[in-house]
Queue: 4 jobs
Job 1
Amino acid sequence: MEERIEQTDEPVTPDRIAADLRDLGVESGETLLVHSSLSSLGWVTGGAPAVVDALMAVLTPEGTLVMPTHSSQYTDPEVWENPPVPDDWEETIRTERPPYRPAVTPTWNVGAIPECFRTYPEVHRSRHPTYSFAAWGADAEEIVADHSFENGLGEESPLAEIYERDGRILMLGTEFDTNTSFHLAEHRADREQEVSTHETTVVGDDGDPEMITLEHLSYEADDFADAGEDFENDRPEAVTRGTVGPADARLVSQRAVVDYGTEWFEKNRE
């Protein structure tokens, strides 16, 4: 907390956040995918709800606010690294963890703002147990509906729905290394890619727990920062930079990011 006070000239209020977002170029009525870091905003009066309130105020109910609400605690424990778990724990974790429930299951490692956002009234969260997204506003239900259990960041995902609506990405104190839209580009790249599967539990249509098998690309993100740096260098006109409170912020076209990333992965990945 002391560090946040030191990085802020005065308390960051919802009105200041909203004004800075408008100055950056965020518009009412648009579709906006937000990646965020609460700590980067300094001392925010009211914490995460202040940021969510400001985003909603700027977009208005005629726009659509989307955030990743991933639950990596429902990935395969065999691949966990930070920390790894003992081998003889893995089957117990797979079979005994509670089923994924969109209204109940917390996010994991995506930040305080998405975790707060998913609990808001009229926010809809998709059914994918590991790669869910939450949305609010005019197109919220359509964006998260029918999120496929196969390839959760691919063509039948909220990312593809945002692409179809020509939405934009707001990086609020974050960098391209966490930009999930590059995963959609991974799907669209014309190259050989490994596919992974793992089992997890969700609530079935009858309300009872159901074990399902998820199939997805073996997603990589180690080179996202490099792809993002090249994108900014090659397409400077597609990136609007500014600040929201003390946080660095970027506003970019999601279509431009995905299209660029698709070609970049084809050229730069073996």
Job 2
Amino acid sequence: MKILITGNQGYVGPGVGRYLRDAHPDAQIWGYDTAFFAHALSGAVDSPERVLTGQYFGDVRDIPDYCFEGVDAVVHLAAISNDPMGNQYEAVTHDVNQAASVACAARAKAAGVKNFVFASSCSVYGFAPGGARKEGDDLAPQTAYARSKVGTERALADMDMGDMTVTCLRFATACGMSDRLRLDLVLNDFVACALSAGEITILSDGSPWRPLIDVMDMARAIDWAIERPASAGGQYLCINIGSDVWNYQVKELAEAVQAKVSGTKLSINANAQPDKRSYKVDFSLFQELAPDHQPQVTLDASIDRLIDGLSRMNFADSDFRNSPFMRLKLLESHIQAGRLSRDLEWTFGR
């Protein structure tokens, strides 16, 4: 088996590479990444790419055809990966997250790839009061990032896929320790606040709903998708990835962290305007189709791993929201240094 992982040098990619290597020890596993965050290691003792067969470097907007030669499965993680970056670079977000993703799928099909796995997001549900959302329910994307995911899903659904099976994984909000840690994610942020400042401040009233999934369980779901037969859900499948027991309100997440880090204070802005990103999600289809690849990491375990990882790094930066642990801040540092253009293209050789 030969697997190509795009965007493998981000937050999720290191765990995916390691999980797939363990699950498929004889596979050829290749990475393709533009290397915006390749140097942003967090406590890793060696390169996460050590487990790969090889690593390509390049812009996903111009991925060469040779990367797909002989590939059985493509795991497409490459994206401008959160709301702050999407809002700051909206046109680029569309180009990278949607146009390039669709082009990548077309090249995969032309090369004879059997399975194309697209990392989508439950953020497509946006503002969704009431019951847990199923895959066929209405979408209400609130941000450029979420709109790009919706656009890609719809384009892939309309594509002539030939013999290729396409799986769009609508992941719950990612969390957990990684060799390239992000702290611009809700649970990770709360743990960092508790460890560095002894206080968690929730800017909203704490009531919005967020389904979560640990990065290791994301990798588990991807392992299912790279070999999913069309008979299990259809040639094109869009599916929520997470667990019904991981539907939490933001204040519940903060309270769980507070219980783990002794002495942590919790402040909630009860007078805040309602957060327009609030949704519960139904994961029953995933449970039905992939019973052997269900999430296994509990909320407590994910918090424990974050605490252990940050403690090993001697993390104590109470101003971390202005640090490279925030992906937008790291991109901006590249731009300010002249390494990246405003279109998020490397300037080397110009």
Job 3
Amino acid sequence: MTERIREFLRNRREDGPCLVVDLEVVRDNYLTFARALPDTRVFYAVKANPSPEVLSLLAELGSSFDTASVAEIEMVLAAGAGPDRISFGNTIKKERDIARAYALGVRLFAVDCVAEVDKIVRAAPGARVFCRILCDGAGAEWPLSRKFGCEPSLAVSVLEHAHRNGLEAYGVSFHVGSQQGNPEAWDQALTAAAEVFRNCAERGIHLSMVNLGGGFPAKYLKEMPAVEVYGNAIFQALRRHFGNAIPETIIEPGRGMVGDAGVIEAEVVLVSTKSAEETLRWVYLDIGKFGGLAETMDEAIRYPIRTPRDGDAVSDCVIAGPTCDSADVLYEREPYALPVSLAIGDKVLIEGTGAYTTTYSAVAFNGFPPLRAYHI
């Protein structure tokens, strides 16, 4: 929460729950990443928050962009970045989308299997490709295993296939898991990446780049190491596994770039119990899983929640959203402590919500409008 956001909320016209993002925090975060890893290119993960205001700011600062679709590519181009600053980082792409990206000037594509390489051979001849390898995501609050990537031994064959078919086998990527709390998590992944580099070199293929992925955390309820700590740990791991021949590197911060720049203001709609004897309160907000808080699924992300009654006595409660869907419960398995005095009509502030909220918001489930967003 910044003073700029407080001032905006004091003066805004009431229009339901909303997200407010302070662009000065985004600017500071970008500069922090740039200083922590000065020889590494920043490719902002557009999916985290694709608002024109965020993209334009980052383009102006010199950021590159990790995109997952043609629509995101077009957003980045509209924000002022050239196609040489765009990676089509999704490993699951339609061939016509690859062709469209290529026509727009994009030349950097992610793969994790031979079939995806073949699409790029046909639709984007001569393009650069990097192969994503599997990573267990240990230490992350939201591991990203299995769906994306392949075993490192297979990655060598995938990159060789790309090389033999006229593409530039450019490098290797991995992702250590979203909200990664362990700065040493990159070490194991870089061990595998270095092995891919060596095995490719034995086949006459000289890779140039390691995509270190995202995983840099936003601050929620737990304290996390500073970006500088991650930068130092990653640099030491690169030196350990690549010696003096450190490859080009890129990072893909998303949550770490915009998460702590945003705050959602919501309203308490109802406070109730389920029986006369029940002491556990249910607190219903006017925003829930379908309104932008999808990352509370399995209670993976626990957002800090501030109320106007902080300082009063607290007790555990279940927090749920307003829709007529029984899955729209945010925190129940591990109840959330909120002030006993919290009442219907009170406004609450849900912090750390600058990433993965507006884009997860349903179009109009139960007739509720999508989450409004303001970037200041």
Job 4
Amino acid sequence: MNAVARTPSSHLLRRATQLDAVATAAVAALLIAAAAPLSQWLHLPQNLLLGAGLMLVPYVAFLGWLLSRERISTAQAWAMIAINACWVIDSVLLLVSGWVSPNALGVAFVVAQALAVAVFAELQYFGLRRQQRG
């Protein structure tokens, strides 16, 4: 057995992934179940909110699969980090592009979820670094 296979996942990486999975599942459920009222409150298109919620479902499944593994590999961790980074970039682009015209609450919602996702990515990155050192 090689050293990589014996190295357990970093506790931080696993906890960050768990937090990401729970929070993402909650946001996905909210966006899917309440797209219509959220659209009215946030002044964001209902189809955008519903589509975003539906796009999160496979990511939550991916995170669940990762958490079922004994070890999260470097490539898998980088995939999580990259997906989260893309979500943050897309959230910023959504606001600066002029494609939507959210009200202040809508802007706050997009910014808050982007900041949370950025924190997940950062925690996953630090957890990966810790795992690589261990």
